Amino acid sequence: MTRRTLIVLLIVSGALNLFLVGIIAASVIVHWGGPKAGHGPGPRTAFRLYRAVDELEEPQRARARALLKEKHPQIRAKIQAIRAARRDLRRRIRDGAVSPEAVESGFRSLQRARGEAQAALHALVRQIAESLTPDQRQRFYRQAYRPRAKKRKWRKDEKGERRE
Known about the structure:
extended; 164 residues; mainly alpha; single chain; two-stranded antiparallel sheet; 2 strands
């Protein structure tokens, strides 16, 4: 092996090592740098609402999107209030609140924040539904308030049929 070949192999090896270190570092950052407690996505109703709006026909969809865009800052502020109340309650419990009244106060503020957010979302749904025909309104309500599907795990039995 000549000195030139050894230098080329050393450079290639160093480049490969840097590449692998970069991949590992990126995966660690993505894995541990995820959302913190209280910073995840908002209420599921909001996401169903966006899906329900996407199912509307074009003129109604445009009006509904305009309403969503107009009310977005208010809804976002309500969701942030829920997160702040949840963080406050966690802090009270974690710090070992001595009095039950302190914890109860935290629960009440969380409940109040959730109620305000829910009322704002329902008011937005009503505003969107006012401009729809009865058939469209029924489909819209079904999409917006569709119950979550139950996760059922099933396996096939000896006969090859599904078993729940």
